[in-house]
């Protein structure tokens, strides 16, 4: 399962939930939500990055670029 988190043109930090962690049916849902939390940063000049959740599931972080109006 490929997980993709998107950040906007001017954003440098992000906070997402790992969908794979949420899908595992071990423990209560609130506990899974807390454990699935992933924070990270992506420099403004970088378009793609990678991050792993605390359980090692991989996330791709992609920057959304908005074309200037013509």
Describe the structure in your own words.
- This protein has 70 residues and is α+β, with helices and mostly antiparallel strands.
- The chain has one domain.
- It contains 2 helices and 5 strands; from the N terminus they run E-E-H-H-E-E-E.
- A 3-stranded mixed β-sheet has the order 1-5-4, with no helix packed on it.
- A hairpin with a 5-residue loop joins strand 4 and strand 5.
- The radius of gyration is 14 Å and the shape is elongated.
- The mean pLDDT is 90.
Mean pLDDT equals: 90
Using only CA atoms, what is the Rg? 14 Å
Number of strands: 5
Are there runs of 5+ residues with pLDDT below 50, and where? none
SS field, number of helical segments: 2
- Report, as a whole number of angstroms, the end-to-end distance: 37 Å
Strand fraction band? 35-45%
- Estimate the helix proportion, in percent: 10-25%
Helix and strand arrangement:
Elements: E1 3-7, E2 13-17, H1 19-23, H2 29-35, E3 37-41, E4 48-52, E5 58-63
Parallel strand pairs: 1-5
Antiparallel strand pairs: 2-3, 4-5
Summary keywords:
70 residues; alpha+beta; 3-stranded mixed beta sheet; two-stranded antiparallel sheet; 2 helices
A few lines on this structure:
The protein is built from 2 helices and 5 strands. It has helices at 19-23, 29-35, and strands at 3-7, 13-17, 37-41, 48-52, 58-63.
């Amino acid at each position: 399962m490929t997980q993709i988190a998107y950040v906007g043109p001017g954003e440098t930090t992000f906070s997402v939930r790992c969908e794979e962690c949420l899908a595992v049916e071990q423990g209560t849902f609130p506990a899974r939500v807390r454990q699935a939390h992933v924070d990270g940063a992506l420099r403004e000049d970088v378009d793609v990055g990678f991050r792993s959740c605390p359980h090692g599931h991989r996330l791709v972080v992609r920057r959304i670029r908005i074309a200037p109006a013509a």
